[in-house]
Amino acid sequence: MVSVASVLTLAATAMAAAPVGKYFDNYIFVIMENNDIADVLRSPEYNAYIKAGVEFTDYHGTTHPSQPNYWSTIAQSTFRGIKVSNVSDNDSSDWGQVIDGDNGDDVFDITGVTTIADSLEAAGLSWGIYSENYPGNATNCFLGQGYGTENYPGVDADHQGKTNRLYKRKHNPFVSFTQISGNTARCGAHVFSEKDWAAAVKADKFPDYSFIVPNQVDDAHDFNANTDRTNLTKTDEGIEWSAKWLANFLADVNKSAYLNSRRTLIHVTFDEDDSAYDLNDSTDPAVQATCKDLVNNCPGDKTNNQVYGVLLGSAVSCYTGTTIDGKFDHNSIVATLNDNWGLPSLGNSDSYSAAVWPLKNCPVQHQYQAPAATNLYSAGVKPIAAAAAAVAAALLI
Asked: Which segments cross the bilayer (predicted)?
């Protein structure tokens, strides 16, 4: 395992010019929540992204519950078995606990582990995480478990009006690592809210690496009420709500002269599937017996935590409509970033799929065309059939 200290030492001697990527110059990662791939593929919008980009046909979450999946995306490990020396909420009852999945959505402080943030900084590459409803700022590294009230119309009764839900620390993986959480200046320089992303859009100035976290409603986690279309299940409604958010997000990205002048790779995925929870929570003992161990992607989950994944942007503009068929999971993200920018291995991987995505170099830059609409949805019934074509037209292709 590469130490944080050694990586940060390299930063002091990094070249003035950041390395040029093999396949992309900017990476934008958007992560949604807790849906089976079959449910997501029922969405015309998410299907339109596949047609306009490059589809992963065998992409997986690394475990359950959510938080270790997020760690995998930046540090290539679920860190199962690590004994935590302290927690930021100062709840002494949690001190000394071991990450084993049962407590895998909590306030952990992980020490002495290198993440992609350390590697990026050492190479002179810029990065930022943008979490919707994050209340911190440049002088306040917010380390609480959550913030915000879900006052959205349509949020199901289990979540409506509850506090500390819109922003969740467990979906902000960088603050689980003490080199970020224990350094207010560093945290403030890289850990942002959606307001900071809006400022980046306005200024047309973006970091090389962007990690985008919608809030607990916009990521399809908690929006499960069928409010505007009777032909949708509750699961479908949450997915369509997230598709609305994503369409608006991509419309802003696609207006960027800066990003359109570079090879920009946009990666959209979900953290984990939902079938495992259905099995684990079943009232049928025989069904529940097929998923006693969520952490190890229970045997009753026939897709083994497979999730939706697609690559969009000018970086894949020369091979849109194709597929990546190898078996990958979230650990492959760091492996691919390392390969693209010549970064050192983190030495943390505990998965079969710390493999590199088979990308191509698309030399011809995308020429921006305005999307058909900046908001593909009306206030009432969503025009689903027409939206698919409009979404495709709005993408970098």
From this structure: none
Contact between residue 136 and residue 77 where contact means Cβ atoms under 8 Å apart: no
Question: Which tens digits make up the pLDDT trace of 299-358?
Answer: 777 788 999 999 999 999 999 999 999 999 999 999 999 999 999 999 776 555 568 999
Residues in the chain: 397
> What is the identity of the amino acid at 200?
A
Residue 19 DSSP code? P
**Residue 11 near residue 121 (C-beta atoms within 8 A):** yes
Does the pLDDT of residue 393 top 70, yes or no? no
pTM of the model: 0.84
Peptide bond into 207 cis (omega under 30): no
Q: How distant, in Å, are the alpha carbons of 26, 188, 202, 257, 382 from that of 205? A: 11, 17, 8, 10, 33
Q: Which two tokens stand for residue 367?
A: 């020429």
Sequence-ordered list of residues with C-beta below 8 angstroms from that of 202, at least 6 positions apart, any chain: none
Residues with Cβ within 8 Å of residue 363, at least 6 apart in sequence: 318
**Can you tell me the distance from the alpha carbon of 240 to that of 89, in angstroms, rounded to the nearest whole number?**
35
The full DSSP string for 308-376 is -EEEESGGGTTSTTEEE-S-EETHHHHHHHHHHHTPPP-S---STT-PPP------SPPPP---S-S--
- Tokens found for residue 320: 């849109």
Yes or no: say if 46 and 392 are a contact pair by the CB < 8 Å rule: no
Token representation of residue 60: 């997986």
Residue type, 10: L
For 66, 70, 211, 310, 333, the CA distances from 28, given in Å and listed in that order, are 20, 15, 6, 12, 11
Q: What angle do CA 68, 71, 73 make, to 5 degrees?
A: 115
Q: Which 3 state secondary structure label does DSSP give 183? A: coil
The model's confidence at residue 148, banded by pLDDT at 50, 70 and 90, is confident
The CA-CA-CA angle for residues 331, 337, 340, to 5°, reads: 140
Structural tokens at position 143: 């380390």
d(CA 244, CA 251): 11
Complete domains list, the chain, with CATH: 4-272+307-394 (3.40.720.10)
In this structure, the strands spanning 209-213 and 328-329 are unpaired
Query: Phi then psi for 266, rounded to 5 degrees?
Result: -110, 120
Do the Cβ atoms of 109 and 166 come closer than 8 Å? no
